[in-house]
């Protein structure tokens, strides 16, 4: 008999597999349109994703307090994101992961920080939900990286 | 605080129609693919959208917070958009964001129209 947890795990797995499939299809589309070779697995990307995910989760926890009281931690996340983007951009024009980091950065600055500053602080239910989303986004990045050539989940 | 009953079938049916129209308008060259991508973005978000809409209706989330959560899907939306043949990242991102805007507009409209029959107090 499958319990509630089992059903949830199955659902999460399916969703993860579909997302990964879309990303791999997107990579194929980009490679076909550019005629370039694919980008290989990079352990630095995994390390950056793990680190920024932790920083964002910690910052989200702080976002129930006033924006102006958290400027140092905000700047640290901004710097980490910029460093990750700079690293990804060096890996080539067909690197979809670079797009993903750029979009995360855009979301962080133009949406998350802008709204936090405007509203001063967020509620705890929001923080719980946004942390789940940050975890999912960075899981997406690491899953995709692990499936690139040379990565632990690469399949020829 | 009263819990509200929301007709999610009606919401997702309306979102599906509007995403279809958006796909036809923005990527006419690859319309079938664009419809497919748009629908997959919505399907991927469905569980979260149901939970967040309920939380918004129950005032556990503010409108700004709800919007922020929906927009957090811009990364996945842009990646999905990249599948559209020939679609550059900027256009893929714009397509993904347009799908998210359609979703937000439909849900906000439904929540604002308490008398429409879609949203009824328990």
What does this structure look like?
The complex is a heterodimer of chains A (156) and B (122). By secondary structure, chain A is mainly alpha-helical. Chain A has helices at residues 4-34, 43-62, 71-89, 96-119, 124-146. In chain A, 75% of the residues lie in helices and 0% in strands. In chain A, helix 2 (43-62) packs antiparallel against helix 3 (71-89). Chain B is mainly alpha-helical and 122 residues long. Helix content of chain B is 72%, strand content 5%. Chain B has five helices and two strands. The longest helix of chain B has 27 residues, at 31-57. Chain A binds chain B through residues 11, 15, 18-19, 22-23, 25-26, 29-30, 32-33, 96, 99-100, 103-104, 106-107, 111-112, 115, 118-119, 122-123, 125-126, 129-130, 133-134, 137, 140, and chain B through 40, 44, 47-48, 51-52, 55, 60-62, 64-65, 67-69, 71-76, 78-80, 82-86, 89, 93.
Rg of chain B computed from alpha carbons, rounded to a whole number of angstroms: 15 Å
**Largest beta-sheet characterization of chain A:** none
End-to-end span of chain B in angstroms? Answer: 11 Å
Number of strands of chain A: 0
What is shown here, in short?
With 156 residues, chain A is mostly helical.
List the helices and strands and how they pair.
The complex is a heterodimer of chains A (156) and B (122).
Chain A: H1 4-34, H2 43-62, H3 71-89, H4 96-119, H5 124-146
Helix pairs in contact in A: 2-3, 2-5, 3-4
Chain B: E1 4-6, H1 8-26, H2 31-57, H3 63-71, H4 74-82, H5 89-112, E2 119-121
Antiparallel strand pairs in B: 1-2
Helix pairs in contact in B: 1-2, 1-5, 2-3, 2-4, 2-5, 4-5
């Amino acid at each position: 008999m499958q319990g509630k947890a089992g059903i949830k795990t199955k659902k999460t797995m399916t969703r993860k597999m579909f997302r990964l499939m879309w990303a791999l299809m997107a990579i194929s589309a980009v490679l076909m349109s550019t005629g370039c070779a694919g980008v290989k697995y990079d352990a630095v990307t995994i390390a950056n994703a793990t680190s920024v995910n932790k920083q964002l989760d910690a910052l989200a926890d702080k976002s129930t307090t006033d924006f102006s009281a958290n400027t140092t931690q905000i700047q640290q996340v901004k710097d980490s994101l910029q460093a990750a983007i700079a690293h990804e951009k060096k890996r080539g024009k067909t690197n979809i992961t670079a797009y993903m980091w750029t979009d995360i950065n855009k979301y962080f600055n133009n949406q998350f920080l802008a709204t936090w500053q405007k509203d001063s602080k967020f509620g705890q239910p929001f923080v719980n939900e946004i942390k789940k989303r940050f975890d999912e986004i960075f899981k997406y990045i690491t899953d995709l990286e692990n499936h690139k050539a040379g990565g632990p989940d690469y399949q020829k | 605080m009263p819990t509200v009953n929301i007709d999610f079938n009606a919401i997702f049916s309306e979102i599906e129609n509007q995403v279809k129209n958006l796909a036809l308008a923005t990527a006419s060259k690859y319309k079938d693919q664009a419809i497919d991508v748009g629908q997959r973005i919505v399907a991927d978000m469905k569980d979260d959208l149901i939970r967040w809409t309920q939380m918004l209706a129950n005032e556990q989330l503010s409108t700004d917070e709800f919007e922020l959560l929906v927009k957090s899907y811009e990364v996945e939306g842009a990646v999905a958009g990249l599948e559209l043949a020939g679609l550059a990242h900027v256009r893929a991102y714009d397509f993904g964001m347009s799908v998210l805007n359609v979703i937000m507009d439909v849900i906000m409209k439904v929540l604002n129209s308490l008398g429409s029959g879609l949203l009824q107090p328990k």
